[in-house]
Amino acid sequence: MTDTNNNSNNGYSLKLISSMKKEAPFDKIWNLAWHPSGDILATCANDKLIQIWTKDDKDNWVLAKSLEAHEKTVRRVAWSPCGRFLAGASFDASTSIWEKTKDQLDFNHVSSLEGHTYEVKSVAWDSSGTLLATCSRDKSIWVWQMEEDNDFECLSINSGHGQDIKCVLWHPQEELLASSSYDDTIKFWKDIDGDWLCMYTLTGHESSIWDISFNKDGSKLVSCGEDKQVFFWKYDKENDKWINIFKIKEENSRPIYSIDWSHLTNKICSGSADDSIVIYEEGTGDNKDQYKVLLKKEGAHDSDVNCTKWNPKHENILASCGDDGTIKIWELIKNN
Amino acid sequence: MINYNNNIIDSIDVFDIIRHIKDPEYPNTLEQLKVVNEDWITVEDNINDKKDCCYIKIYFTPTVPHCHLAPTIALCIREKINQYLPKRSKIEIYITPGSHQTEEEINKQINDKERIIAALENPEIYDLVQKCIKEDEY
After folding, report:
1. Chain A positions in Cβ-Cβ contact with residue B114 (cut-off 8 Å)
2. Which of chain A's residues have a Cβ under 8 Å away from the Cβ of B121?
């Protein structure tokens, strides 16, 4: 199945376009986020920095800015949908908010969200760009509302998960929040008359769920975890519940840390502690609820792959980062 | 010093690194307290042409079945290997089956990547780990 000589699978290959290395070797790069324009990348690492990468005049990806505000590892970064704000969730229990200047790559540290007791593990903006969710090892999810003057008001503190919460993510269209946890479940949260209630709890994973991603219209969700499995879920409108429609196991030999569903091509990419990147494809016709491995790129990084994200503007371009302190940009190519 | 034949790491090399780790509570080493043992270590190295990374699996036996420092011992083992093994490694650490009351819970915690990093960013835990893994000068 895996051809390591030309990395060609099902007629597809993953071509390395660019590779950027942090100065300190083997700094763990935990996460990355594409700016909505598709031309800027934000990364975060255990050196406590958020870094901004972009292309220079010669089309080479280079480090543009290092943003310093945290005392510990920065675990995740997220751009607001308009691209004006960047949020960073840190193990120092705070979330930093940065405002990008209009035409340049300058950033002002406009706010710091405090309140969590332990490490903040994930941060996400809703589709309107006014709500922000953060989650922590303290087992709570905080929903924040952005007010004028870059002030953030905490609207709600949600508890329900029994353990650390690894990831929060908003539905791409609705005011519906999904969270995944060390307690092996995924939960959905919704504002019902001012109270954020847990609407659904999804069980099936056999260990911590590291990452989740919605498809474009939000009718499906994909999740991955410590159990080396990928689960596909679908919203069953008739019965008002989320059901597991497909699962992939035994593709990765170690935990899967990241998963991302492309809203441009509908393909899915994942990154694993076995150093590989895997691309999945949805079936067609009657097999729309089935998924197959399109390509597996072994040795994509020299260590754990912590994050894989599709470019939001340019089809089939994806970025990855890992424990080898490297950020890589790839193009998925269909061979002739 | 450890002699790494042909740069291939085996369980003896790994045991030599972890045997002198001091127990966080007692004045003894993990070897003396029979917490670690060469036979409970497996190493896969040089597999599938991956010459730059080895895969290590270690079982350890806490001194008592309710030992609250079992996660710290696991951190010490992991950190010492990371510092002393002259090769990149992927390490799995588990409690010897049946030797702890909350075995499953601890196994999950000590192999969770975020928890490991976060624990080592806590100054008290970090200092304790460094103290336990420090090599005595002879």
Report:
1. 75, 119, 121, 137, 164, 166
2. 72-73, 91
Residues 6+ apart with CB under 8 A from A74: A30, A31, A44, A45, A48, A49, A50, A88, A89, A90, A91
A contact set with B (CB within 8 A): 28, 46, 72-73, 75, 91, 118-119, 121, 137, 164, 166, 182, 207-208, 226, 254-255, 257, 273, 299, 302-304
Q: Does the domain made of A8-334 have the CATH classification 3.40.50.300?
A: no
Predicted model pTM: 0.95
Q: Return the sign of the alpha-carbon dihedral for residues B103, A227, B55, A303.
A: negative
Domain boundaries, chain A: 8-334
Ranges of H-type helices in chain B: 11-18, 70-84, 103-110, 113-120, 123-133
Q: Do A304 and B53 touch (CB under 8 A)?
A: no
pLDDT at position B51: 66
Give per-residue pLDDT as tens, A22-58. 877 668 999 999 999 999 999 999 999 999 999 999 9
Interface pTM (ipTM) of the complex? 0.92
CATH topology of domain B11-133: GMP Synthetase; Chain A, domain 3 (3.30.300)
- Chain A contact present for B115, CB below 8 A: yes
**Using one digit for the tens of pLDDT, what is the confidence trace for B82-135?**
999 988 899 999 999 999 999 999 999 999 999 999 999 999 999 999 999 998
